[in-house]
Design goal:
The protein has 505 residues and is an alpha+beta fold. The chain is built from 4 helices and 33 strands.
Length: 505
Amino acid sequence: MSLVCAISNELPEHPCVSPVSNQVFERRLIEKYIVENGTDPMNGQPLSEEQLVDIKVSHPVRPKVPSATSIPAILKSLQDEWDAVMLHSFTLRQQLQTTRQELSHALYQHDAACRVIARLTKEVAAAREALATLKPQAGLITPQAAPASQATAVGPAGEPMELREQVGMTPEIIQKLQDKATILTTERKKRGKTVPEELVRSEDLGRYRQVASHAGLHSASVPGILALDLCPSDTNKVLTGGADKNVVVFNKTEEQIVATLKGHTKKVTSVIYHPSQSVVFSASPDTTIRVWSVTGGNCVQVVRAHEAGVTGLSLHATGDYLLSSSEDQYWAFSDIQTGQVLTKVTDESAGCALTCAQFHPDGLIFGTGTADSQIKIWDLKERTNVANFPGHSGPVTSIAFSENGYYLATGAQDSSLKLWDLRKLKNFKTITLDNNYEVKSLVFDQSGTYLAVGGSDIRVYICKQWSEVLNFTDHTGLVSGVAFGENARFLSSAGMDRSLKFYSL
């Protein structure tokens, strides 16, 4: 009787038996297997070297190798080896497929973890920014949570309007507004008697041409400049707001970007340059109004006056207060130093979004445009609607008061431009534009002599005659903003084609 190793299927030189499975093994092979696995290879039961029982046998006589017997035996051996190789190859392919699936799953988990980490990092940064913004306003009541003291006012047509005062128009603030208005009225009457000698004449203005174009201020991936303003004290400083959520300060003379201000989470639709400080303001559909330091390049105040997108922004002549309009149907009057909302008012009878807002040069009244084609004039001190100008047939897109305080220009999505006399409260001139003309921006020059219109193209009209003196079609997209330089020595424009252009002699 010959003994055969259960592992190698060969005659063992040092046979031993496992009491666990009662199988015979080559001691060298079974000891190696036990070191690696600690079990019996036949049934997987725990097994140690001490449990092995040696078998004493006479020196075995090895049989002849089958390959040495016959050709059929050799062929069978080769076939067996081939089958074993194929079986091993199949096993390796299965293991490779399993490994690939495990690696793919691990990579997916890693990618998901990276996305979660990036999102959390962004949220932490936003929370830190919000915390830093709220610290200067500690102890203030936010507009949304402030208990509103409600009153009811009556407009000219007898419609009720809800007044919600967030902090309050104190007598000191009202007196400050009144004093400033008195000064401005006196100065305006003096200026209104004569046209500035330095002002560019209409025949010279008609010869203006494009002298510069800059397309690298905002991101090319999200093209479009949506708002434009010039610094009143230095019209070489240009302020733009873009669809890329950034606010950019540009120096016209040096042709250099002074500052790129980032913080809004949606596109910037309104911008204002402070007349005497290195401060700019911006508004966005992200419901916030931001106050920026140009020198510091950072946001110094966030005014949260609305619960929906901010559609209009105007700075009071004192330089201390902001007027804003919103899709939430409210206009708000806010203190830029503290971020406090002094008052918020809506016309409950109208029930429609406000599309734009602009202060009168005196600062005691202002106008708002609505989505239902109305222009409303408000008394700031009383917070009441004192006049309405119907006539447009589409949402009002832009309004502008003349420097002399007598005229109001309005544009809407009805391809028309209307001029209103604030003394007689009536429309005295309607300029019908081309079919499908979109009015996006209206602005009078500082003397009130010229009116610029931006939209499907750029047009400039001379006041009183209301005749067109120039027309530019250089932009390849809608013109979203136009502005005059000092004494109309140049005209600037910005458009959805991402370009900022300048026109002069």
